[in-house]
Structures are given as structure tokens and as C-alpha cells.
From TrEMBL:
Signal peptide: none annotated. Pfam families: BCCT. InterPro entries: BCCT_transptr. This is Uncharacterized protein. It comes from Prorocentrum cordatum. Keywords: Cell membrane, Membrane, Transmembrane, Transmembrane helix, Transport. The lineage of its organism: Eukaryota, Sar, Alveolata, Dinophyceae, Prorocentrales.
Amino acid sequence: MTEINELAAENYDQFPNTSQPDCFVPLQDGTVCLYNQATADILFDQISSYGPRGYSDMLCALTLMILTFYFVTSSDSGSFVVDILPSNGHPDPPVFQRVFWSFTEGATAIALLYSGNNAKDPDAALKALQAASIITGLPYTFVMFWCSQSLVILCQEENGGLDPDRKAFSTFIFNAKNIVLHLKNTAVPGLTMGRAVVHVGKWPFSGLGPGVTFGLWTGAFSLLYYMAIIVTICTAALYQWALIGCMFYIGFGTFVGLLRNHMRVKHFIEHGDIATDLLCGIFAPMFTLSQIEAQFTVPIENKKKNDDLEVKEGNENI
């Protein structure tokens, strides 16, 4: 009986307080706490079920060491990848630069964790770190979309599906020389959009004449654009207004993308597709409108037909 009591004292929690209710039954140290399910403590609760307190404490310490090595190696791998990017893809970038990025990432994580130090919620610091990583990584998601699309286009050019010298817009979309057009299209984008509708034709109300068509579409596009701004400002009073403002803006950007697509068709521009047009219209509307406006002065010319005519005339001369 003495040996049984000693074993019980080793494996069971001891509660010196004798005022426990009659229905209270002490549990073994290794029993997993069900209230910690789906939280950060579940790992250590699970480890504690593998043996008595001394053994489970050793496993917890070993687990902490393994987690530390895991995060350190993950940070080192991330720093190596970041180091390759500014080194123009060099497979063996400078070590000092790699150390610099490691310290930069660590300092950023420490700052974000410390920012929630005085919060009431103990998980506020970790939530701030997670939110910051998602917010900073979201723009690169769209960059990856464009990189994937560029890879597809490159493969099509390599196998002959697309002509590498195919016709493009007269100006690049991000053109610093058109800074005046960028500012104008940021303030009054409806004017350029109305002119584009008249230029490309085949839009509703085009049969009413250029002046009426320009006035109707300029008013409609301007209303959509300014409503997006006004409703977004109302977000300061009620957050839900942001959803309606986003709806107005996406509609405006979609129209800008459709106009870019129709300009490509009108001028026989083979660079780009409808997906690219919509992305440009939504994420860079003022630059897209400046590119469209610069295209107004370019004569409409079908390069492919002209090339076919030159080949035909050359064969006849032969």
C-alpha cells in the first residue's frame, strides 16, 4: 500500500487545499487539458500526456529547441532568397548582405511584437505580426500573377505562337514623361474616357453624334469615379461604406480596362489581352488613361496586313 501511495504522489497532482468539492477527482499530470484545444498550448498539452512531469518537462524543453532551430533555419532561407533578389539572381550572393537582411527581418519582427506589448489581449503582438506579413505580401501576389502571365507570353513567343515584334501601344503605361496627363486623369478621368468612347465607337448612344456621346459617357464615368471617392470618405463615419465605395471603384476600373481593350482592337495592338487590360484599369487607371490618350494621335495602322502586303508585292516582283 505504501508503494502505491508513493506512485500516486509521483503521478498525480497534489492539492493541499482540503476544501475541494466531493465530486472533484484529481487527474494525472499527463492528461491533456481539453480547454486548451485549438490554442497554442495544445502542443505542450499533448507532449505532457507522454509521461510524468519530469519526463514531459524534458520533452517540452526539447520541443522548444526544435522550434527555435526551425524558425532560425526558415529565417535564414528567407534571407537567402531576399539576398538573391537584390543581387540580380546571383546563386551565391554576398554573405554580409545576407546577414544584413537577416537582422532587418529580425528587427522588423521584434518591432511588431513589441508594438502589442501593452495591449490587453496577450495575443495582440502576434496578431499584429501576422497582419503585417499579410498586408505587405498581398501586393506581391498580383506581381506574381503578372510574372506568371509574362512567362506564358514568353513561351508563346518562343514556340512561334506570338510575334515578338508585334504592335504595342505608342507609350509604356508607366511613363514619367506623361506626368501632366497622369495628374489630369487623376482629377478628371471622365474627359479622357468620354473621348475614348467617341474614338473607338460601337458603344451605346454612339449613334447620337460625337458631342452627345461624349457628354453622356463623360458624365456617367465621372459620376462613378467621384461617387467612389465620396463614399470611401464616408468610411470615417461607418466602416461598411468602404464596401460600397469599393464597388463603385471596381466598376470604374472595369470600364477603364474595357476602353483599353477596345483601343487595342481599334489600333490593331496585339500586345496584351483582356485580363491585362482589366488589371491595368483597376490598379493603375490614371496611367492607363494617359496611355490611351497618347494613342489618340497615332494613325490607325494594321501592321499585320501591311506586312502581308509587302510579302505579296515582293513575291510578285520575284
